[in-house]
Amino acid sequence: MGQEFESFTKIRQISDALDGRTIILPNEVALGIKDAAEGQRMREIAYELWNTVFQERYLAETLTAIESGPAQNSSEVNSNLKMTRIVGVVFRDANCLFSESHMAPFDLYNFVRTLGMFNDNFGTNVSEPSIDNLLETMKKSRDAMADYIFVPCSPDSHKDYVQEQFNLISGYLGQKELPRELLHDLRRTNRHILNLLLLKALDNMEPKSAELYAYLRQANTVLGIFLDENKIDPVIGKVIEDERPVKIPVLASELITNFMERVSWSD
Questions:
Q1: What is the rounded distance in angstroms from the CA atom of residue 212 to the CA atom of residue 146?
Q2: Cα-flanking dihedrals φ and ψ of residue 115, to 5°?
Q3: Residue-wise over 218-244: b if at least 16 C-beta within 10 A, else e?
Q4: Are strands 246-247 and 177-178 parallel, antiparallel or unpaired?
Q5: Domain chopping of the chain, boundaries
Q6: Most exposed among 15, 48, 107, 127, judged by the fewest C-beta atoms under 10 Å?
Q7: Which tens digits make up the pLDDT trace of 213-250?
C-alpha cells in the first residue's frame, strides 16, 4: 500500500485510541484554505488514497467469487469492501470540498452509494443491489473519472460551501428530533466536515489535527450506532420504515455543536 494509505491507517488508529469527550478543542479550529493550490493538494491526497485502495480488477474478481456461493462471504472480504467504500467517500467528498463546482462526478457518487448499499446487505438474504448492478456502476465511474477535469475552488468558495454544510447541520440539530432519513442525512453531512478534517490531518500529520478528526469522528460513530440499533422494530422484527421522528443522540449533538462554535477561517 502507498504512503497515503499508511498515513490514513495511522490517523484512524490514533482516532480509535482516543475518546472524543476527553479531547480539549482549541479556541479556534481553522477550516479555511489559504489558496486554490492547498485545496488541490488535499484533493490529490484523496485521489492517491482512492487509487491505492480501489483496485478494479481485484474488486471485480471478489464480486464474481461472492456470486459463486456463501463460502466467499468472509469477514475479510466484507472488511475489504467496507474499506473501499470508506475511501471512496473520502475521495467523493474531496471533490465536493475543493472543486470549483463543489460536486463529485455523478457516476462516482452513484458507485460509492451502490457499494455502500451492497455492503449493508452483505451476507444477508437481500440481493439488492445485484452484483451485476454494482459492476456496471463501477464501470461507469471509471469511465467518468477518465474524462473528469478537476478545477480547484478559491478560498472564499470553499468557505461558502463548508458554511452551507454547517447551516444544514445547525438546522437539523435545532429540531432535537428527526425522521430517521433526516438523521441519516445529518450523519452524511457531518461526514463531509469529518473528511475535511481527515484530509487536513493527512496533509500535515500533526497530532492536533488527528485529535480534531477523532473528536468529530466520535459524533458520527454515535449517530451510526444509534441508527443501527434503531433500524429494527423489536416487536415485529422488521426494518422500521415509517417517518416517526427520533431524538438526536445528546452526545453527538453536543460534540458537533461545540466543534462548530470554534470554527474560524484563518489559514
A1: 34
A2: -65, -40
A3: bbbbbbeebbeeeeeeeeeeeeeeeee
A4: antiparallel
A5: 3-21+35-147, 155-264
A6: 127
A7: 999 999 999 999 998 876 644 444 444 565 678 899 99
